[in-house]
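agent> call fold_tool(seq_1)
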Amino acid sequence: MAFLRAIIVAFIVTGVLDLITKRTSKKTDSIDKFVVRAPIDFAALGAIGMVVVIGILIFCEIDGTVIPELVMVIFFMVGIFPGFLLMIAPIEGVWDVIVDDDDITVVKAFVYRRHWKFSKITYGKMKRGGMKVYVEGRTRKAFFVDAMCEHFSNFMERMEKEGKEVIYPEGMEPYTEEEMDVEEEQAED
């Protein structure tokens, strides 16, 4: 029962933090000052998962069913942990890429911070889930910008404005104006 109480408290606390994050987050079209952060939709998915987990645990508690330890460990790894991670993802400081003019600050897990300059970016490499960003003096990626996060489009626009090269894998290249015009004409016919 103590385990169930801890899950319910974690669910409520992260839910309140997500609501506060939603109320304080600002949408911006600026390409000079913005924050790339996980969308609040992630928290909703995590909340759905956590409600299912809490419901199953309450049902087992009421029914008097004892859950074996191995099943509980698997249940934790498959249901509880991913749901909790989804719920905390949109909270400020969990995973942010903060762009403030030429300064870029990458924040992970509230404590890990790395600072970069936009002017030092050499190129970006698009991958399946987002863009790996490389800076001068490093052969490994400096940081990753997730394409599902809010303000990713601002980051892409800023890369284009600054004239930074973005390398696309074969078959993932963006449409050119001519290709978009041809598709529009075909859609009208």
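agent> call fold_tool(seq_2)
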Amino acid sequence: MYEILDIMHENAYNMYENTYYLEGGKEMTQSIYRAAGKAIIWSIVLAAFIAIFFGWGGPGSFAHDKGRIVAVAILFGAGFAAFFTMMGLSGKKKGGALVRDERDERLESRAGGIALTVVLVYVYFLSIVLWAIFQESGTVPAGWMWFMGYSTVFIGMISHGLFTLLLASGKVGNGEG
């Protein structure tokens, strides 16, 4: 009975302090908040990029379509603006900063290593697929290089956010080591 009252008191106090909660009443740390924001922001940007890239002529005409190149550059800039805004806002809240400890550093570091591997595998396989498709013609349309460049950034950001969340939840390893 006293444990329930303690939890209720703690939750009421933390809600007054504007603390975010995860399933089971655990407090959301800064790295989890930022990882979720990163995955959401860059997933939206990736979806918009794919629509712009493939929606109006595809990779064959992308390099010659200055309107799409500018639209994607603006989208890319807007993605970074949203990302840096989220980073700045997640460092502040009523009553102080979001909780951050040594475990967060380990989670982000481990997620960074996994995300790097994901990006390397993505670039390798996309390069091999493009080579196989365009081997006979001897050239790859320049639009595919634009696609690889932009999508590599998106894949890196999204995979880092997702693996930080998966490690923090215990779904992939335990975030230690």
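agent> summarizing second result for user.
The two ends are 38 Å apart (CA to CA). The chain has one domain: 29-169.
agent> awaiting next instruction.
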